[in-house]
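Our preliminary data section would be incomplete without showing what the modeling component actually yields. Below, a chain of 246 amino acids is followed by its predicted structure, encoded as tokens that our downstream tools consume directly.
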Amino acid sequence: MDWILVIIFISGSLPSAVGMSGCDITIGNIQMLHEHPKLRKCAETILQKHEYIGCRVSVQTGECEGLNHDWGLNQTLEQGYAYAKKLYVEHTLQPPYKLVLDGFESWDIPVVLETGGRIDISFSLESLDQTRFSLYLAEGAGSGKRQLQLSFVDTTLELVEYVDGIMQMETTLTSGIFVPMGIFKISLLAQANSVAVRVKDVAVGTMKLGLANHLRVMRRVRFVLQSKPNMAPKDVFIRKFEFTGK
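Predicted structure:
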């Protein structure tokens, strides 16, 4: 099996994002599971389409077909097709995307977060003194059956796992590192029965999950920015996503 590195410059908006413009850059590693003269071109096409986990090409007709998250959970390889799947996608937003107060912006997760997978998200912000900033990993476009919520509140980081709207697990991490200024990165690492959190590449804690391999079903990452009572929120900008699958 071969791997290819693809770099794509995207002008305009991605279908899976809200209000993005400019010239975004997508870089990806794609694993070629078979050989076919049209498979590489097909893989390059689906790299910029975050709703797809992989792709396949008909051996007979050469037709290219994107494969969604449902395929990624099982990865069935049918006869008569050549397959490829995404292992890593890095998406840089140019210019950075400003979150809207009380908005629910979301992006597709273009890999399956099996054990060993991870999401790295780079932000820039002034302060959290007047702002509550949350991100969610969700099974669907809405709240979904399963969610993992991660919220910055003052100098703490709260993690909550939901299944069918019912809280399963909750943990709170406290550290002075949660007073970010300028650009910083938060990382979520998928483990068999837990999720590990890193801020600025420093390990800050782990939360045990109520469901094993919970993160593998997550299809979207959503953001919510809220202001504290009678206060104007500080600006938060999303700069880059990095998705690593297995």
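Residues 78 and 233 are 51 Å apart (CA to CA). Confidence is low (pLDDT under 50) at residues 7-21. Preliminary results of this kind motivate Aim 1 of the renewal.
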